[in-house]
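Anyone else keep sequences and structure tokens together like this?

Example one:
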Amino acid sequence: MKIGVPTEIKNHEYRVAMTPAGVRELTDLGHEVYVQAGAGLGSAITDDDYVAQGAVILPDADAVFETATMIVKVKEPQPVEVARLRPDHLLFTYLHLAPDPTLTQGLVDSGATCIAYETVLDANGRLPLLAPMSEVAGKIATQSGAFILEKPLGGRGMLLGGVPGVAAGRVMVIGGGVVGTNAAAVALGMGAEVYILDRNIDRLRDLEHILNGQASTCFATTLQIEQLLPEVDLVVGAVLVQGAKAPHVISREQLKLMKPGAVLVDVSIDQGGCFETSHPTTHANPTYEVDGITHYCVANMPGAVPITSTYALTNATLPYAVALASHGVHGAIARIPGLRPGVNVAGGQVTHEAVASATGHDYVDLEAVLPPPTAAAV
């Protein structure tokens, strides 16, 4: 198969979807890999690094999309990239379609088969391709929040970890998954007082052990959140509903409960945001204020640390990319069943039920629009 790796063009996105090691794995199997010139520079990977492992460098994105049949990316395609997609394309990237009906419609109209990293499952129902970026985003959420708490950046003007004789700051993490666990761990490492909330009692028990009993674990009710809001200095929103829009766990009215200059960091912003007052921001202009509360809602937080993020992401995605390139969609699904819920759009239809519900499309079963090959063809 011909695999294309274009340069990411989202604002301040420096990651790249494939490392030289990935190129080597694919070319050793007989596939052709085409990388856009300069695609890896933001992650300190040169064109020569790719060429040394068998890649062909193409001058621009048009050439990559025209030459390749499988497009591997990091972030959701921007409008100019959607316009380049064809019905014979297989797109493998983060999509986050639930809060974006416009992008969903664009992918439907393209006819391409679009597989979203964030809805691929493993054998235990976990999200193996979301997890590495969730780990990065959780850590960034706390360190960014701590930075924004500084007065020149609109925060309260406090050091999250405190100093002897001065109390540490308080952090509330809403959501005890991968993002929340990493956010809480970094906050504890900084010396903050931490509360982590979730609605799953078993998960709260796990967190007691994971965090060595250093954080207060709380059941996530509206009342519990309201009782903590006046006390905390930083809130990290880490709520995830697989494939669907994130629910709002803090309303605008509830912002009045918070201290002036407190900070909200919404890691759920890719899925629409878990605070009513959230809207996506960029690394170029990361924060804004609502009712005296500073919001940080960057939609590609891991893009700020591309060397770490690129290698963490591609370590996870490479086995799936190899399976798709070597065996096609149905062949890869037969070998890795968790790929099936990753197929969000195919044959001009939405093939993920939660995405269809969130974007107002009819849900159509994958096999109805992309029939598996016959036994003879396999």
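And example two:
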Amino acid sequence: MPVIHYIQADGAEYEADVAVGSTVMQGAVDNMIDGILAECGGSCSCATCHCYVDEAWFGKVGEAGATEKTMIEMAMDPQPTSRLSCQIKVTEELDGLVVRLPESQY
């Protein structure tokens, strides 16, 4: 199972084994990692699973689609590497992925 690294705004780091085919959001929820609220349950309609993909990984994760981009615009403090973690499908190639969680989601 790929390991995803979640870094909270205060610098606390957590690792979680996340099943291929799941999402980065679901990995955080399943492992009780604070900072991903996931209020809409992954339907790309609330932006409470906003995260910053580490620059070294952004090329592998890719850019957001049109609907996701609209939601990111409504998130607090969007950055060039912002994504909604509900829209990042975990693959074997994402083993080691690093995401940072915004302070606004605590």
